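Encode chain A's predicted structure.
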Amino acid sequence: MPSAETYVTYHRKTYPYIDPTQPKLSCAGKNVLVTGGGYGIGKGIARSFAMAKADNVILVGRTKSILDDTKGKLEAEFPATKVHVFAADITNAEAVEELFASATSSLGPIDVVINNAAFLSAIGTLKEANLKDWWRAFEVNVLGTATVTQAFLRTKPEGHKAAVVNINTSVAHYGIFPTYSSYAASKMAALRMTECFQAESPDVRFVSLQPGGVDTDMYAKFHMPEDYAMTDMQLPSDTCVWLASEEADFLSGRFIWTNWDAQELIQRKDKIIADKELTSMLKPIEGDLY
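Encoded structure for chain A:
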């Protein structure tokens, strides 16, 4: 049984096959929306889509000044891409509905949604936890993701092909992590929820992505060893562009690690589909109620 590190070739930095400047990964003519898009991984993802020549990149976050700063930097570096900002809490359904209505009326349908915004509760045992803080992870990671996705689906024209990448985490499935119960459980809920969304909307490609250990403000809250092998931010950023391409369609409804070599995943395509790999089904126990 392979580990995550041996499933296929394991990268910690980006590599030529997923270079977003390649014509095969061009996002020209596309509208891309990134939540938590003002900083960290979200900012990196927005930059990679600008590198791929997306027509419009929409940044969503709670702090307008941070979004405006990122907008200015991206448009200075990539003048062909227009960057738009919407300050909103993704758990506020009314605000999210308004931003999608505004974006789609002025720009047209959204082609790619990156659900990157997340919340990490204070690390600690349940006995010690402030349950309001503990539950906030579910509000953002589950309800917030569902709120954004619902607004997207409701504004998407019937039959319009699109992609949704939900940024997840290895702790949702990879081992047991005491003191991380809120984050691990909410992210596992988001993973299972995403699989359901895929079954409901076959014209949308839903993929859950583990971005690796990336040097961000959220990562700094984790109690990780100092010698933990980090992942360069460019890798998950470029991976998102590849996942938005038709080449990644066979990964619909699945969970992948950004570290896995894309070309080798394609080579495993038949096995991934036939054996239902990279899903949350309990192996070797399977069942189908319908």
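The two ends are 29 Å apart (CA to CA).
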